[in-house]
């Protein structure tokens, strides 16, 4: 089970529709013009196809569409990485207003149409009546063969990207040798000039601090000596006063307890003042006026300032500037090293060729098997003697997908030369070839739901019965929905939905309903009779349904 429910509001000619879908093979039938493909159109819109105001029912403000899926395990990592909630049911919703503006949600979280499309490839595989057109596009043809062969192209693509990058780097280096050499010489000169200074991180701030201290050395010495005198004077010094005050309070603290606390504070102050005296004495012992060091500082600061002015940078930025120039020079050295670039280009070319050859061998091995499988499917679709060929040839130029060109060729009749699918003239043949390819390759994808939109156009009789049996067989393992006008196909379905159109004063509306029992017999009879039911067509319809119900599940 995959697609559980479709809900539509004001979509084209559908006013309101809630449709539950079942596992197995389900057909949608109805009279011409009833809108049999409307559900498929709705699903394509829900899954990110282009939206416009034309999908909004006349007179309505907006179209509102949603689809509920069982959440397949293979999409859960994508949902989690994209930030969408992981639920048992995957709910996709899209609205389009009368101005053509579209909004979308995935499990209630706003999403983009691109994200809906990304999910769509993992949920639905739609085969339309013009599906053969994609079989003329090289990327589609190649993709089908690779999927059939179980080949992974990621490595070849990555090797190609690396080879191209190395080719471009080498080409740029060759074209820019003169310019790069000039730039290299400029950087070398700048690095050499500033390198002589050898500016260190944090050095500028230290130079300024030292210079400031030395330029105020005499004032600092005078301040230290004066502070010592104020603290240590025997008559009026701060230490003498603190000592006396401490003794006076201590003498009376046995009478006044508060004095003990105050004496303790003075004791702490005396200790701190003595620490200050010790520190000032040490400072005076080592401090001196050093004219030579002052001259050295003046000289180095002048060099810093001169280079900073030349390169129009604050002095403190010179170390970072030098580091950047060295890195740029290393990069230029690498860019001008043609030998290294040539070696890298040759290595990446070799790696690409190895990956591409492995991919080519896999394609060559799988092509006859896919040819035989599709040829076999064609025999049961009224193309006896027809032949399908998957042609793998060497591409004129290597590319991200490898070194092969892949084409689908077909001969509709015995004795004819296989030609490209797009050059087969008969529309009926195109539809049958498309169906043969669709059925053969439908098991390759990960999408749990397959949709066939009138791919049985142009066939009838025993071929139509074969088409129905093929789809019935597919429905055993996967959910299959098919829009059809063939009673033989409809009779083979596990479930039958009928699309009807009603006209009233308020306009035209379309509805979809499950038909069972006599109602289904009547619908198949209508299809047999070209729109009319008779006792003969009713009897024939009942017989077809009975036979289909006990028919083998598929053609082997």
Beta strand count: 15
What Rg, in angstroms, do the CA atoms define?
Answer: 43 Å
Shape: elongated
Task: Indicate the mean pLDDT.
Answer: 84
Weakly predicted, low-confidence segments? 552-556
Strand-residue proportion: 15-25%
At CATH's second level, what is the architecture of the domain at 3-129 and 446-550? 3-Layer(aba) Sandwich
CATH class of the domain at 3-129 and 446-550: Alpha Beta
Structural commentary:
The protein has 556 residues and is α/β, with parallel strands linked by helices. Among the domains are: 3-129 and 446-550, P-loop containing nucleotide triphosphate hydrolases (Rossmann fold); 180-335, no CATH class. The protein has 18 helices and 15 strands. The strands form three sheets. It has a six-stranded antiparallel β-sheet with strand order 2-1-4-5-6-7, covered by helices on one side. Strand 9 (387-399) and strand 10 (402-411) form a beta hairpin. Helix 4 crosses helix 13 and helix 9 packs antiparallel against helix 10 (257-286). The longest helix has 42 residues, at 338-379. The chain starts with a strand and ends in a 6-residue tail after the last helix. The relative contact order is 0.14. Residues 552-556 have low confidence and may be disordered.
